Amino acid sequence: MRVVVIICALVGAVVAMGQNFGTSVYKPVPVEAKVAPYTVKADLGNVENAKILPKLTAEQQKLLSGNGFLARPTVDEQLFYVYENNAYQKIPTFVTTDSVLHTYHVFYDFTLRYLEKEKLMRAVKELSKIMLAENLWALSNEKNARLKTAFTRNSAYFAVPLLLAGMKPELPDEVSALAAREIARIEAHNTWGPGLTGAQVDYSQFVPRGHYTRSEDFKLYFKQMMWYGLVPMNMRPDPKATVEENMMPVLQALTISQQLDYNGNAAFLWARLYDPTVFYVGKADDIAYTQLLPLITKKFGAGEFSRFDDAAKIDEFRKLVQAEVAGPGIANYNWLEGGVQGQQFRFMGQRFIPDSRYLQELVHPKVGTEDVKRGFPMGLDVPAVLGNTRAADLLDNTYQQPKYENYLKQRAKLQKEVAALTLDDWKQNLYYGWMYCLQPLNTPVGDGYPSFMRNQAWQDKSLVTFLGSWTELRHDTLLYAKQSVVAECGDGEDTPPPPRPGYVEPQVELYERLSWLLKYNKEGLVSRQLVEDGGQLAEQFNTFTDLVDFLAVASRKELRNEDLSADELRQLERYGGTMESLTLTIIQIASGTTGNTGWWDITNNTDRNMALVADVHTYNDEVLEEGVGKAAEIWVVVPFRGKLVLTRGATFSYYEFQQPSENRLTDEAWQEMLLKGTAPAMPDWTKSFMLQPGRTTPTSQDELSNGDDSGGC
Q1: More confident residue, 535 or 635
Q2: Residues in contact with 218: Cβ distance below 8 Å, sequence separation at least 6, in sequence order
Q3: Helix (H) / strand (E) containing 178
Q4: Do residues 275 and 528 lie in contact, with contact meaning Cβ atoms separated by under 8 Å?
Q5: Which residues contact residue 27 at a Cβ distance below 8 angstroms, ignoring those fewer than 6 apart?
Q6: SS3 state of residue 713
Q7: Pairing of strands 233-234, 344-345
Q8: Are 589 and 542 in contact (CB under 8 A)?
């Protein structure tokens, strides 16, 4: 066996699998709420500035007066456009949780892009080179027939990412043929087929999506990492296969693990890829080499590769792995491989995310029968599992999901799992932390909250906020997160005028959790020297944290019936510019384009548009797509200094639909659908507060009155 001299520092070479990434602690503080209830007259006669409202039909005005708020689609491509338009039109601002959560999505997505571009793209290329060299060397020196087959497959396995990059490593004919076959399948990105390791692979997953469409480098990185994350080596024997066929993937996993153990450079690069992505998304849901190493020592001891060529010991090793390594939390169903996924080794496995587990556990074969299968989950399943009673009501009574056998039983089981999670569980990575921030949206508000929040329509609006932000989370993590699968076949003035009214959606707990998450996010990046403490990127986290803390303070004052100060109201007036500055600056820093001076200087048209899409579940040859569209405006009647005042903010628009798996949507394709008017309708339940395209013309700037300089007060 070749002994490699370690020429690089091994700091972080072996990842601490359950490691914390920050010291920030979130401690909830009780909220005092004592806003007096109020009623909006049908003719809006008691709303001080009702004349600023765009023209509505009688039906729409009834919806506004009954609920205390109303949302409408707009033509705006960003939420902050609505707020900046408020400043121009002198319309009182309503700050929504949607706008804050969307800004966090920009921070999350673009700092992840920064890490990928600056750190991870080089690492995956160098790691592939080292592992290919290791296996070609082993292949040329190995006499054992089984091991030669394993090294041939491994050589092809590590050649694929390099060939995708246009490199031309010298390969033996058999290795070259195997790798070329895989390249052809990846580029064709058709559906399921047997892959290099003998396991079934969903090649349709290799279509670059999410932010990975933005450059050729990102497209390449997507395919390379999808290869390492998706293609498995089965540890569970197939009863229909021969002894030889069942041994081979285990031999591949054993030899790869030992190569990583003995080659310090490879181990360092592996950790360089794995550790930051654990922080952002989570730990691998399938077996990593770090989990196999102690079991290899226990069963095979130390020595040459030849000790692995023992059918009896490999069988014992499988049983040892089964006893000591947990199975996948997201156990996909694939009838081609005999049912529910067993244990698999993956070189850089896709990550466990809790919501994929919820979706997987709520479809066939766990839910439904052979005759009546629940092949597709719904986005509503996620908030329902997290305790949202309105989501559960819609699932049970509107969509009749209990018609599927075991649905309610499975959902109750998952709800118990969620109830058992501790704060440490929720702070284990940024993915969990983001989900934790969304949870306050699942609880209806009680007495003392403003009247517009105390009705079913607001619960529906909060569901859209939850699902819109969740869609952005799934979009940002498309490459790494393991998907659930069922495969069955303005200028300043010298003397500023008095501030206009303004209001913050009083979701104190959400803002305070998000403040914790931002600090945790920055700490995790700085502590790993991925971001410079005191540098531009770190300072943007500080600026955003200050904004979120301000919104929490303002919310508490509103709920205690305390007036916001003139400075606080002016800060709300500037909210659109603050949002644009935060998002533009983080994009500039992350993309290295700090010379840009405005939003339209962003070179990628797709990034200028907030509309995005993510496929979250695969069923046979179709996928479930979750989409966020253009900004919607929300008109809210709020109490302000003893009067009722009309305010305006911006919210998500949310879509859910099915799509052929061979045509998984990119953001570009989705934005084109929205532009052409071929996008599906929003869910029917959103009609309780959201006017649908077609029922009213989307709001344009020209539609709004600009004759009321004071905002009506």
Answers
A1: 635
A2: 113, 116, 117, 208, 211, 212
A3: helix 173-188
A4: yes
A5: none
A6: coil
A7: antiparallel
A8: no
- Spatial separation of the C-alpha atoms in residues 609 and 668, rounded to whole Å: 10
> What Å distances lie between residue 144 and 262, 301, 387, 418, 544, CA to CA?
21, 19, 57, 50, 60
Rounded to a whole number of angstroms, the CA Rg of the chain reads 27
Which helix (H) or strand (E) element contains residue 607? helix 605-608
Interval 177-203: pLDDT, tens: 999 999 999 999 877 778 899 888 999
Task: Give yes or no for a contact between 147 and 308, defined as CB atoms under 8 angstroms apart.
Answer: yes
- Which amino acid makes up residue 264? G
One-letter amino acid of 281: V
Q: How far is residue 278 from each of residues 275, 540, 667, measured CA to CA in Å?
A: 5, 22, 25
Q: Does residue 502 contact residue 689 with C-beta atoms inside 8 Å?
A: no
E strand or H helix at 620: none
Give yes or no for a contact between 532 and 538, defined as CB atoms under 8 angstroms apart: yes
Distance of CA 671 to the CA centre of its chain: 19
Q: Does the predicted model carry a pTM greater than 0.70?
A: yes
**pLDDT at residue 269 above 90?**
yes
Instruction: Report the amino acid identity of residue 295.
Output: L
pLDDT value of residue 20: 59
Q: β-strand 333-334 against 339-340: which pairing, if any?
A: antiparallel
Residue 594: how many CB atoms within 10 A of its CB?
A: 10
Q: What are phi and psi of 679, to 5 degrees?
A: -70, 150
Cα-Cα end-to-end distance for the chain: 82
pLDDT category at 7 given cuts 50, 70, 90 is: very low
> What average pLDDT does the segment 504-525 reach?
96
Q: pLDDT (tens digit, 9 = 90+) per residue, 164-173?
A: 999 999 999 9
Going by their DSSP bridges, the two strands 612-619 and 622-628 should be labelled as antiparallel
Residue 5's H or E segment, with its range, is none
pLDDT at 259 over 70: yes
260 dihedral zone (left: phi>0; alpha: psi -120 to 50; beta): alpha
Q: In 326-433, where do the E strands start and end?
A: 333-334, 339-340, 344-345
List, for residues 83-121, the tens digit of each pLDDT value. 999 999 999 999 999 999 999 999 999 999 999 999 999
